[in-house]
Known about the structure:
By secondary structure, this protein is α/β, with parallel strands linked by helices. Helix content is about 35%, strand content about 20%.
Amino acid sequence: xxxxxxxxxxxxxxxxxxxxxxxxxxxxxxxxxxxxxxxxxxxxxxxxxxxxxxxxxxxxxxxxxxxxxxxxxxxxxxxxxxxxxxxxxxxxxxxxxxxxxxxxxxxxxxxxxxxxxxxxxxxxxxxxxxxxxxxxxxxxxxxxxxxxxxxxxxxxxxxxxxxxxxxxxxxxxxxxxxxxxxxxxxxxxxxxxxxxxxxxxxxxxxxxxxxxxxxxxxxxxxxxxxxxxxxxxxxxxxxxxxxxxxxxxxxxxxxxxxxxxxxxxxxxxxxxxxxxxxxxxxxxxxxxxxxxxxxxxxxxxxxxxxxxxxxxxxxxxxxxxxxxxxxxxxxxxxxxxxxxxxxxxxxxxxxxxxxxxxxxxxxxxxxxxxxxxxxxxxxxxxxxxxxxx
Length: 389
């Protein structure tokens, strides 16, 4: 997995935008280290815009310099394991300085540790409320990390917010930062996918419940709609043999059949991905070609090709000619957990579900294969696709 991350995050040729952001952030980080005001640097951008590339350039620079006390924090279990593997290949970075946020916060507060810089990838996964079940009894993990470091460098994508306990908005972020110095560095160019801007916009429009239109064919990005999940799976297996890192993914909501909680549709029946303490990432395990990936194993990682099964919680409105989101059919209840400090609307829950689908559809660098559980939605997508043939 470390080889994949090096290819993704430790690239030799940075774009002009990435070089500019890194230079500006170096100036800001240096000023934050000299000061004592608990500053925050925010790297903000959508999925695939190169945020982690910029972060890892800074991590490599500061965490290998012994004059600074630093840490890299990530709350995603798969990404955490992958970063620990990556540390083994970068002289000067210690595995013990790569932590889950709760672990770092609890130990640092107990031992009165302080840091010059704390880097946080996927900061939209930080807890914004107490979570005793996960051994976090503070009120906001960003607040706690800010109190531990002269400057915290955070990567945020507000379109990757999926759960109430990890709820973040720009308003909440800046309310949390309060009067502390902060600066936002925006990333807005798509680096992961070879898709055009119009093709990325098609994904955004579909998941935003806007009227459906034919997928633009103006790049080398491969796109195909399948009438059956079985046929989609066969194509993903072919791509996996050809180029590797090709997997089927799905959103929640598939009913239990005869006691099985698989993803089942037409001839396709496969189990969900499984948590595994081993260090190898889910998509790299050979047997994962016979499982269905979720946001919990794939957030933050690239695949070559994605086979996306849009689950039962998405339907079709013929009058609006748009995909619809049906929260009552979304079976992963973590999304709907209530909080004492804020209430969520139906629209916000729908946005959480839309974000899951949007991020999964953008995991593939070279192609997206698509089908849907709902008959009407699938037929509309198939009809539009075949019209372009």
